Backbone:
């Protein structure tokens, strides 16, 4: 009984500290999730803009150089344009 009376306040304090840490960590995770969601939205918008700009550029190249081939480079990275020399 005496041991329990001595240990209980320590255990309650430890539990409260752990609960506070959990609540802080949980709040931080929610904040990070919101940040990630915001960044993902921005990435998708930027990706759509790049796709649109590439399509416009590709169309302009095709109109200016009818024999040109516009396509993806190795690995889907840089784009290449092959333009036939005028004869």
Residues:
């Amino acid at each position: 009984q005496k041991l329990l009376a001595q240990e209980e306040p320590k255990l309650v304090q430890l539990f409260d500290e752990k609960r506070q840490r959990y609540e802080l960590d949980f709040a931080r995770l929610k904040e990070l999730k919101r940040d990630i969601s915001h960044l993902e939205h921005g990435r998708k918008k930027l990706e759509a803009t790049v796709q649109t700009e590439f399509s416009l550029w590709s169309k302009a190249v095709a109109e200016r150089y009818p024999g040109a081939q516009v396509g993806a480079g190795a690995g889907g990275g840089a784009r290449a344009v092959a333009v036939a020399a005028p004869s």
Q: What stands out?
A: The radius of gyration is 30 Å.
